[in-house]
Amino acid sequence: MVKFIKILILITACFFLGLISVDRYKEYRKAYEKEYSDMSSSPGQDVEVTIPKGASARKIAKILKVNGLIKYENAFIDRLQDSEYRGSLNSGTFTLNTGMNTLQMMEIMAVKQEEESEVETIQLVVPEGFTVDQIAARCEKNGICKASEFRNAVKSVTRSDYEFLSDVTFSADVKYKLEGFLFPATYNVPVTMKPSELVDYMVKTFEGYYNEELQSKAVERGLSTYQVVTMASVIERECKLEVERPKFARLYYNRIDQQMPFESIPTILYVSTDGLYDNINVTDSDKEKNNDYNTFKKAGLPCGPICNPGIACIKAVLNPDEGTYLYYKLDASETHVFSDTPFEGDEEGGDENADDSGV
């Protein structure tokens, strides 16, 4: 009888602890969502913060949290990614207020400080899906540096320079080890910035957005950062509609499970156009070429990213749609149709008519 009472007490305690945990989680989500979306402000205390040069979004979030300006770093980072201030926060000393919402803080930090405003800058817009070669060409066009200088800066990076590269076994066909990690954003590049510093700044921007929550989801799926970014890069070049990204992620997971090739045209174009995606024509001979990017010749992921994807495609990889479909095609309305079985007259099961000419 005594034993039964002890067990009953234990079960009751566990039940109430569970209720407490649920309530605490609900409180956390409510507070997180408020910090992410709140547009109101209230009286508070002024706080002076200093943001160092080259600070990533995560570094800025940590500084704000330490100074009591925010509670949740990920809420700040997510809101920054979805805002007009993405890639536009500056270094310097700023006076913020504990009563401000995070969007107001971003607005202030997006204003250049006097000492920095004296340094001439050149704007560099890097759209989602741009490759190293496309970024290099834009750097030269904008007068930031020569395309060859930017490419050489990318090539000079070694596996030990960044943690996410340390455990990657690179195929001999991989063109750039950093392809996929030059985060798409709008950068105000000081004219004195070296190409190697610009490359490092772009990679650190990626590290700021690829937060702990996303890293944990990757671990749960048994994926490395390199694998996540590689799949995200294929999705970025394969589809243009946001609603389709989780569907493509599911389709690729299903094809991996079935040991089927991705049969993705962009993986061929990456090689045939030398990373410029300036030609959408693919021949049968292109599909037969032996290289580790060619997903018509090999099953699973290509040997590396085929562009630099945005955070939306990365999130799609980590939050795929539900479904068992293995095939897709482009319909008359320029949207993709997905199916568990091959479409009539479609031997490949891929999308050979998609317009992958660029961003």
Describe the structure in your own words:
The protein is built from 14 helices and 6 strands. Strands 1-2 form a two-stranded antiparallel ribbon. It has a two-stranded antiparallel sheet with strand order 3-4. A two-stranded antiparallel ribbon has the order 5-6. A hairpin with a 5-residue loop joins strand 5 and strand 6. The longest helix is centred in the N-terminal third of the chain and has 36 residues. The chain is globular.
**Overall 3D geometry?**
globular
- Helical fraction: 40-55%
Order of helices and strands: HEHHEHHEHHEHHHHHHHEE
How big a fraction of the residues is strand?
5-15%
How would you summarize what this structure contains?
The chain has helices at 2-37, 57-66, 73-81, 102-109, 114-117, 132-141, 147-155, 195-209, 212-220, 225-238, 245-257, 265-272, 284-288, 311-318; strands spanning 46-51, 92-97, 121-125, 186-190, 327-330, 336-339.
Protein traits:
359 residues, mainly alpha, two-stranded antiparallel ribbon, two-stranded antiparallel sheet
